[in-house]
């Protein structure tokens, strides 16, 4: 397929802000659940990336908190994690200094006395390093500990101290249905004001996700056609080749709809469909997101399908089926694939179908948004081509590749040269992130951790947003829980999911676009 490469001029690159004015003030980051994978694989590498580009304050400390009795080996383990998962050279001159700021404090999350000691320890570190009273508590634990940690922080007056700024970052899952999300919001807001709460969805830290807003609202040419008059339908795919990676017990209770669709995919949907906010500030952006989510009518159960992978071949490797994964029920009814068809009932989108899907052990790893435009009202060139490489005139497609091969492609028809008739073939204009800006080792957490330290909530979920998306999906989850699927597993690992998912689109005369992940 023909491809035109777009490039960025060097003088454009010099315009990229380096964020010198965005360095947070001195503070301590306290990570609860620090012995888990997230801290080592994502959080510490991201913090070190910030250190590398000079975006961490000089007076800074990281205190890992977990139940295990660990000592200095914690910092050593984090160092190894930074090197391995952060793509960092062991000889990096900043590494030793950074690791020297890490310490560990063992704590049982339900032990009030432990929090009093933790508070004393934080004060001691702050005094020793001249840090001051600012604290950011990061809850990277299993969700069942959230309430207890929050309550204890409140009881020890660590959430609302007399001086300083204190925030709390809460990892997903934020509840497992509407009632539990409401209850958790209630517990959180009994201790922290909403402006102290940072509900994290790491998708919002991805550059390509933020770029959706830039693409739409910093360019004049797309917005006039960004509506029901020009757009036929939208597909959002979050496909992974990974399976459950040893997280069987967690995944058994989650499933694809809870794990990825209710949060990550809905965030993508909101960025694609929201009205232009009046500014890029937390209140304006979050208000527009909630507005568009609230415009989605409840989804009939027929418009939601689920799947579970059986054994198969993924990227050339034989893999077991979900039911044979470690610590998974051999008769499990948990879905590893979910797809829904939604409508958005507002003036911009009425009548436009939105198809969302997420799955594990799919054919390719690709998170993409495809916007299919309507065809011209009259096709003056032959619909069916008799010569040339293409047989039918295709509609225009705009593809936003969130990952991998991050970029944006616009597909349109071009005349095939030297054919006697006006043969039309699709070609791509392709913007490739890595080619334009260089490859980034950022994992998405850099931006979010920095924003949380700065107190900027723009890229974090508000309680209303979380409750709105749970309200949409809870009835589907309940219906699925009430009736075990008869035909699981219903797709082979290494494929594009179950057949019933294709039928979801057939009703709208659409097909899933499965040539994903490439440079179009
Ligand atoms: C997490 C899910 O939130 O997102 C995982 O719990 C999933 O199951 C992951 O694999 C996907 O994130 P990414 O950044 O790899 O697309």
Short recap of the structure:
Helix content is about 35%, strand content about 20%.
How would you describe what is shown here?
The chain is α/β, with parallel strands linked by helices and 520 residues long. It folds into 2 domains: 20-171, Rossmann fold; 205-508, Dihydrodipicolinate Reductase, domain 2, CATH 3.30.360.10. 33% of the residues lie in helices and 20% in strands. It has 15 helices and 18 strands. The strands form 3 sheets. Strands 1-17-16-15-14-8-13-12-9 form a 9-stranded mixed sheet, with helices on both faces. A hairpin with a 2-residue loop joins strand 10 and strand 11. Helix 2 (37-52) crosses helix 13 and helix 7 (178-191) packs antiparallel against helix 14. It starts with a strand and ends in a 14-residue tail after the last helix. Bound molecules: 6-O-phosphono-beta-D-glucopyranose. The site of 6-O-phosphono-beta-D-glucopyranose (BG6) has 5 residues, from helix 10.
CATH-wise, what's the superfamily of the largest domain? Answer: Dihydrodipicolinate Reductase, domain 2
Structural class by sheet pairing and helices: alpha/beta
- Cα(first) to Cα(last) distance is 8 Å
Compute the average pLDDT.
91
- Count of spatially separate domains: 2
CATH architecture of the largest domain: 2-Layer Sandwich
Bound heterogens, unique: 6-O-phosphono-beta-D-glucopyranose
Question: Which oligomerization state do the chains in this entry correspond to?
Answer: single chain
